[in-house]
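[Discussion] Sanity-checking designs against the backbone

I'm trying to build intuition for which residues belong where. Below is a structure token string of 79 positions. I'd appreciate it if someone posts a full sequence so I can compare it with mine line by line.
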């Protein structure tokens, strides 16, 4: 269920803020806080594969949404 919510939420954020797609603070930080909370909730249940799939979906949506590759890689390096 959370995967579907993340897909809809990220798609909506990328659609609304398409012109600000190159500003990492306005575009990526609010969704990342939501996704980190969802990941922490998934880690409470020991279901690590769901967390990996969730982050894979996030990176694919960011890539398809034309977020700069250096922003995606910076998120990946933190994770």
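Best answer:
Here's mine. Compare freely.
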């Amino acid at each position: 269920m959370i995967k579907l919510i993340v897909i809809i939420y990220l798609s909506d954020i990328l659609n609304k803020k398409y012109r600000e797609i190159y500003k990492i603070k306005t575009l990526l930080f609010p969704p990342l806080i939501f996704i980190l909370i969802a990941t922490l909730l998934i880690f409470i249940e020991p279901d690590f594969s769901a967390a990996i799939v969730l982050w894979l979906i996030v990176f694919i949506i960011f890539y398809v949404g034309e977020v700069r590759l250096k922003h995606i890689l910076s998120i990946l390096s933190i994770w």
